[in-house]
Amino acid sequence: MSYKNKIAKRAAEEILPGQVINLGIGLPTLAMEYLPENMPVMIHSENGILGMGKPCENGREDRNLIDAGGSYPEVVTGASFFDSALSFSIVRGGRLDTAFLGTLEVAENGDLANWIIPGKFSPGIGGGMELAQKAKRLIITTTHTTRKGEAKILKRCTLPLTAKECVDRIITELAVVDVTEAGLELKELAEETTLDEVIQKTGAPLIVPHDREASFPRF
Amino acid sequence: MSYKNKIAKRAAEEILPGQVINLGIGLPTLAMEYLPENMPVMIHSENGILGMGKPCENGREDRNLIDAGGSYPEVVTGASFFDSALSFSIVRGGRLDTAFLGTLEVAENGDLANWIIPGKFSPGIGGGMELAQKAKRLIITTTHTTRKGEAKILKRCTLPLTAKECVDRIITELAVVDVTEAGLELKELAEETTLDEVIQKTGAPLIVPHDREASFPRF
Amino acid sequence: MKKINKWISMEEALEGIQSQQSIMVGGFGVPGTPFTLLQALAEKKLNQLTLIKNEANEAGMGISNLIEAKMVTKLITSHLGLNSTVIKMMNNNEILVDFFPQGILAEKIRAGGAGLAGILTDIGIDTILSRDKEIIMVDGKKAMVEKALRADVALVHAAKADRAGNLVYTKSARNFNPIMAMAADIVIAEAEEIVETGEIDPDQVHTPAAFVDRLVAINEITREYEVLESHVIQK
Amino acid sequence: MKKINKWISMEEALEGIQSQQSIMVGGFGVPGTPFTLLQALAEKKLNQLTLIKNEANEAGMGISNLIEAKMVTKLITSHLGLNSTVIKMMNNNEILVDFFPQGILAEKIRAGGAGLAGILTDIGIDTILSRDKEIIMVDGKKAMVEKALRADVALVHAAKADRAGNLVYTKSARNFNPIMAMAADIVIAEAEEIVETGEIDPDQVHTPAAFVDRLVAINEITREYEVLESHVIQK
């Protein structure tokens, strides 16, 4: 299983029946595959969909129906379409139970930086800032480190923030980490990793609540 | 013809084909009667209608369809229904060509006071303030004087304003008066009145552009 | 797996609504007023409520019943022109009434629903309405700060709903319902017809299910919902 | 008497659109982008335009054609993630780009359409976005002043229109179209189907005719409107 699939599979477990969910860009396609069949959940897409389904069967794409990332989804029974103002009213108005976002950096206090590397990378803001700031629960899905092996989970973000103190949980290919009042708390370990590896690849102190590595839930 | 009918009939002449119009409370029923059959005009009602028609035939009233005054109208071909936020977006967003409102007082500079008599009368604001301030053209339809015979057209309003310098034209049972940069200009006289009567019943100076009373257009 | 089903009993729907709460109520006159929910609410004998509604219905109807029963301390509204009973109560200081221009009331509610802090408007800027308002300059022009308005509860009336909570309104019964359905912590909808999820065209949903928490069916179109004879123009 | 008919030729529809004007363009990706209007606009060889659109389409499509042809001085947008050509032009200072959070861009446009001076929001309050913004306190919390946004012209795409100018959108092709249709002095709609006035259910109109000035028919669903093969996930 690729690291992307591993993250998506674990992320899908965070989704509870009846919730309104935004899966961010990129993740939807993968996470949808891991949701139980007929899970009663309403997937929100920024471009004006509530009730997004799995990716279309090839050849059944509808030119009038994309998700916020440009892919062609199905919609579920009970879906609705609306304009961009109403779409973000769902987000900012407190009706979005959980949002998933990728990131460049995330800090131990829950700060998130995922939209700009000054002078290098700035494709814009999109809906991420509103999702980060206003979702009732924000889960970051990301590789544990950059391609160069640098930690993405840090004591403080070095990049301009997307939103302050907004992250609730971080899911990587190696670990599940919660942002708590006391700091970052390691909750689960991937089957392929060790406690040492996770600690070494994390750029901030981890609260490790289990005596032995073997005590950790694995995913 | 009652004075109300006289005012409504003259007001109906202000409506041009293709326009978006709000007829205010009370006037709609009457003014609609004087619009040419199949006049291509879109009547707006604050409670969420564009394309209001004449009052319903008795017995054909629809419990889900009233105008802003509570009466039961028909709708015309091409009508649409919408919520209250969108309804006033039409008004404030500059899409309302002409609004008609009644009044308590109107001043020579176009100030309007029609919503409150402190300590005596204040049923609320309704949509009048927005209609007054934002319609592209505001026409006041009113009796020339109060029931006690006091002038309603004044040098200055004595009551709290609805909106400043908003009135374009005043239509009463006696006269049509325009608000101009130079002051109030008498445009038309009712058939039943004299120039002297109108001047005497108007509480502000009138610019009288015709030499003789006989030169005035009559309505 | 179970489908999402928000259709519950009236008792469940009103559970937890308490005295001192703020309650938005849809409707403009009779159309869109949730009379069935209001009737059930009136029976709960609450007090010190703050109500938010375009008007106060007419005496003996809708929210006027709650106001006349002294359940309401404050009313945030646009106009009381058709309710002399409530006007009298206002003049006798039996109820506090806050008036806003109708479209500004709508925008304040919508702003609450849209998660904004407020709006900036010039409506009423030259009137006594601006007296207690914060004024800022926007592009060289004065604008009043109007705060977003939210409530603990919203009661709305729909023509049709599906079990998931998607709502459709009809004709002039739409009015404040869609924006109030966005702007409360608990949104309770009554519907004249409840259909299976999937029967409403996704392009024709007026209020998406995400905004609706509880749904009840109207068992009977009672007299209050019907044409008001006093407003029928006899020709 | 004649009925209201806003259906005109493309030449009439674009009459008076000039260099240096601001133009809102509906669409989120392909769905809802008025490609036919944009193609005709591109042929007018205007310059120094300000465009307002959620994104810049993709290279060689929609507004990207206008930007690549150097007709556009400034772009007000949310995200350029799928258009590396325009990102490069931005980085080379060939076009000025103003970014806003997507929903705030939508609210600014809607506020323009609703005749408001602006909105108050806390989105981005703790970020570099707040640097140049006026901040006021609302109920003890910081809120940024975001001014309303209007344009000289709006170009929108509808699935269906009637001759009077009522518009209906479909699926995710709705997006920014209804709010942009409120927020410009001249609103020009292209429609895939134009029906006789009266054929659209008044409850299902998405943009009321009052907002639409000019209407053109799309003669052909060209390749640009079709499914983008590069976005199809091969399974």
Q: How is this structure best described in words?
A:
The complex is a heterotetramer, with 2 copies of chain A (219 residues) and 2 copies of chain C (235 residues). Chain A has a 10-stranded mixed sheet with strand order 4-3-2-1-5-8-10-11-12-13. A 3-stranded mixed sheet of chain A has the order 7-6-9, with no helix packed on it. In chain A, α1 crosses α2 (27-34). The mean pLDDT of chain A is 95. Chain A has helices at 3-12, 27-34, 84-92, 128-134, 195-201, and strands at residues 20-22, 42-45, 49-55, 73-81, 98-101, 105-107, 112-113, 137-141, 153-154, 169-171, 175-180, 183-189, 206-207. The radius of gyration of chain A is 17 Å and the shape is globular. With 219 residues, chain A is α/β, with parallel strands linked by helices. The longest helix of chain A has 10 residues, at 3-12. Chain A contains 5 helices and 13 strands. With 235 residues, chain C is α/β, with parallel strands linked by helices. In chain C, strands 1, 2, 3, 4, 8, 9, 10 and 11 form an 8-stranded mixed sheet that branches. A 3-stranded antiparallel sheet of chain C has the order 5-7-6. In chain C, α3 links the parallel β2 (49-52) and β3 (72-77). Chain C is globular and about 55 Å long. Chain C starts with 9 loop residues before the first helix and ends in an 18-residue tail after the last strand. The model of chain C has no long low-confidence stretch (mean pLDDT 97). Chains A and D meet through α3 and α4 of A and α5 and α6 of D. β5 of chain C pairs antiparallel with β5 of chain D, so a sheet runs across the interface.
Give the topology.
The complex is a heterotetramer, with two copies of chain A (219 residues) and two copies of chain C (235 residues).
Chain A: H1 3-12, E1 20-22, H2 27-34, E2 42-45, E3 49-55, E4 73-81, H3 84-92, E5 98-101, E6 105-107, E7 112-113, H4 128-134, E8 137-141, E9 153-154, E10 169-171, E11 175-180, E12 183-189, H5 195-201, E13 206-207
Chain C: H1 10-13, E1 22-25, H2 35-42, E2 49-52, H3 63-68, E3 72-77, H4 84-91, E4 96-99, H5 102-113, E5 118-121, E6 135-138, E7 141-147, E8 151-162, E9 167-168, H6 177-180, E10 184-195, E11 214-217
Parallel strand pairs in C: 1-2, 1-8, 2-3, 3-4, 8-10, 10-11
Antiparallel strand pairs in C: 5-7, 6-7, 8-9
